[in-house]
Amino acid sequence: MYSELKTLIEIQKIDRKVAGLTSQIVAFPKEIETLEKQLSDFILAHEERQQRLGASQKERRELEGEIQGIRQKISKHKDQLFQVKTNEQYRAMLKEIEGEETNIGAVEDQILEKMIEAEELQKHLKEAEARLESEKARVATEKSRLESLAKASHEEREKSLRERQGLAENLDEHVRNHYELVRKGRDGLALAEVRNGMCTACNVILRPQLYNEVRSGEALYECDNCARILYSVEPLPSEAEAGG
User: Fold this and answer.
1) How far is it, in rounded angstroms, from Cα 82 to Cα 25?
2) Considering Cα of 25, then 189, then 17, then 168, what sign does the dihedral take?
3) pTM over 0.85
């Protein structure tokens, strides 16, 4: 095979490897950001439950204070029962006491709701507190792993780029420039393998003469359809095979 074509094949392998490593390097910060957000959301939800519990307990205390005030009113009204002078005033006072006792029942129902709410919140808080440290440890471990992978990917990419530079320096300048031009216009894929008479990049069947020229590997040939540089690992048929 034409030596510069072999070099181009190796360069393309490196370019594809570098592209993969670059994608990984770009993805790592996003993965780390996602991990940190997961932990942040967990902590935020925990803090919000703590705040809701505090608010619920405060509301319960206020309701209990409200009941205390109502009871004082009832006690005062009962004392006043002995001071009324008519049956009509007595009945009115009893009705007012009954209304206050009904109010106590309604407030007690609200207190019960607050107690149930607080119990549920305390249950979730207890579970979250038990998980919080393990969540922090999990995120820290995964973050460290991703940072190590990112560092390794950076180092591997730099190594590959140095290897690529060494190969590219051995190419004829025209060949090198042509490769770069085709690569930029073809989504990073400048070379395409020919297999069974077909360009594997665009799936177009080659002209028989071009097919044989590519298989000879004696020069650089382009696909008539996609303009990629063609290469073949298929051997040329022997004279006996060709004649047969």
Assistant:
1) 87
2) negative
3) no
